[in-house]
């Protein structure tokens, strides 16, 4: 048809037809791939029998498969069998038995903030949703525009706060790449330069991606500085219980800041510690100086949630609520998180010991000094490229690995591949995946 119109010399009509044939989406640029999901897909597409996925932040058993916690499975069956359970909407701010239990989990059953009615929680779409609701509230209600996060940090922190309208998004130094430890001196220096009222994102425990947390003495120094500078603490708590196997130990920093009198937010996820990755169960805990502001703050959070997703899903929240509020189930959950954290610690020791036995250049004690899901290995992008391309071991370009991807069947293979990548043997020697060493 276009050829006929051109021959009939109808350029105007031809141009209109061509324009009408173009999609309104034609000029939308393709966004960059999200690294961790792209790596997971590449791993799935890889046919090599010795492939290893160290990229995804999800627990795996020693057999290398996902694990549904036994107490979660038991609770699912119980809920499904309950004829009183229906599919009606939850309230906008979620299931109250869940938010109360989640708030108590992070602040402690004996928390003065709870007893004095100056702390409460609202259910969110996992920890990510809690961060976004927190960012929106801080920006729209408290006029906060400045946020600081650690360098490095979970990459979504930057996007969440930019999308919420924060105009000044900065980082504070956290990781010393040469010493492979916390760069606490420079962390304090950077936060000392933050303006009053700035929002400071702090990892409650098991820092992602480094696995390095401040000591209790260092947390005390941080609290002193933040109190003096009038900075607002926002805790990202994604690994409570999963990190050490002890929820109280993992919540120490949050509870200490509450004890010091800070008003703060704590963004909680139940993906890791309950294995509810796809159920998106989260909670935003709010701590105030007194209960007089509770109704107003709660009302504004309600309106924010209403405008974004109306109300949260029930399934994951029901599971967490029943487990945390039933003593015998809670005891079973404690055993599960202790089992997960213990296996990860064993893998840290195994990887460190094998690298040392191989004489791999560098020091590797930082692997066992770190805690939680991840290890910041110190590997550079060149090492990572060799591991992916030659040994079919998938990890982030920063050198971050998920410790749960290691098991007794692959840790030696991974250690030898790391050794080869660092020493350069991976470029010329026979690939160890040919015979799995």
Spatial shape: globular
Biggest sheet: strand arrangement:
2-10-9-8-7-3-4
Q: CATH topology of the largest domain, which one?
A: Aspartate Aminotransferase, domain 2
Number of DSSP helical runs: 19
Explain what this protein looks like in three dimensions.
It is a single chain. The chain is an alpha/beta fold and 437 residues long. The protein folds into two domains: 35-68 and 343-422, Aspartate Aminotransferase, domain 1 (Alpha-Beta Complex), CATH 3.90.1150.10; 89-325, 3-Layer(aba) Sandwich (Aspartate Aminotransferase, domain 2). Helix content is 47%, strand content 13%. It has 19 helices and 13 strands. It has helices at 2-7, 11-21, 35-45, 70-81, 96-107, 112-115, 126-141, 156-163, 184-192, 216-229, 247-250, 252-259, 271-274, 294-308, 315-325, 327-358, 365-369, 381-391, 411-423, and strands spanning 52-53, 119-125, 146-151, 168-173, 175-176, 181-182, 199-203, 232-237, 264-269, 281-287, 374-376, 393-394, 400-402. The chain has a seven-stranded mixed beta sheet with strand order 2-10-9-8-7-3-4, with helices on both faces. It is globular and about 65 Å long. It starts with a helix and ends in a 14-residue tail after the last helix. Residues 428-437 have low confidence and may be disordered. This is Aspartate aminotransferase, cytoplasmic. One of its GO terms (cellular component) is cytosol. Its EC number is 2.6.1.1, 2.6.1.3. It is found in: Cytoplasm. Residues 50-418 form the Aminotransferase class I/classII large domain.
């Amino acid at each position: 048809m276009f050829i006929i119109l051109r021959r009939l010399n109808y350029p105007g009509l031809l141009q209109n037809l061509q324009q009408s044939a173009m999609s309104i989406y034609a000029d939308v640029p393709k966004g960059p791939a999200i690294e961790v999901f792209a790596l997971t897909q590449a791993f799935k597409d890889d046919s090599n029998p010795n492939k290893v996925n160290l990229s995804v932040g999800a627990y795996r058993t020693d057999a290398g498969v996902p694990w549904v916690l036994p107490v979660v499975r038991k609770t699912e069956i119980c809920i499904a069998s309950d004829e009183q359970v229906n599919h009606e909407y939850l309230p906008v701010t979620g299931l109250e038995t869940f938010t109360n239990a989640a708030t108590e989990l992070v602040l402690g059953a004996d928390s003065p903030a709870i007893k004095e009615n100056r702390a409460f929680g609202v259910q969110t779409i996992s920890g990510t949703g809690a961060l976004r609701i927190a960012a929106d509230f801080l920006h729209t209600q408290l006029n906060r525009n400045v946020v600081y996060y650690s360098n490095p940090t979970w990459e979504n922190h930057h996007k969440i706060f930019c999308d919420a309208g924060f105009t000044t998004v900065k980082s504070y130094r956290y990781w010393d790449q040469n010493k492979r430890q916390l760069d606490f001196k420079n962390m304090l220096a950077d936060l000392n330069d933050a303006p009053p009222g700035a929002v400071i994102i702090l990892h409650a425990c098991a820092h992602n991606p480094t696995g390095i947390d401040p000591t209790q003495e260092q947390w005390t120094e941080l609290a002193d500085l933040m109190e003096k500078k009038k900075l607002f603490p926002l805790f990202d708590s994604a690994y409570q219980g999963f990190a050490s196997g002890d929820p109280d130990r993992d919540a120490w920093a949050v509870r200490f800041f509450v004890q010091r009198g800070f008003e703060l937010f704590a963004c909680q996820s139940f993906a890791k510690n309950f294995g509810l990755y796809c159920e998106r169960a989260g909670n935003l805990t709010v701590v105030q100086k007194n209960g007089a502001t509770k109704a107003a703050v709660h009302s504004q959070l309600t309106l924010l949630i209403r405008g974004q997703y109306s109300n949260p899903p029930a399934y994951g929240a029901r599971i967490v609520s029943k487990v945390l509020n039933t003593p015998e189930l809670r005891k079973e959950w404690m055993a599960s998180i202790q089992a997960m954290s213990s296996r990860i610690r064993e893998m840290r020791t195994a990887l460190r010991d094998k690298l040392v036995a191989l004489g791999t250049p560098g020091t590797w004690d930082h692997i066992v000094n770190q805690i939680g899901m991840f290890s910041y290995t110190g590997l550079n992008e060149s090492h990572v490229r060799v591991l992916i391309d030659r040994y079919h071991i998938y990890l982030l370009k920063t050198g971050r690995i998920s410790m749960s991807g290691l098991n007794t069947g692959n840790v030696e293979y991974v250690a030898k591949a790391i050794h080869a990548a660092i020493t350069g043997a991976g470029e010329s020697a026979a690939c160890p995946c040919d015979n799995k060493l």
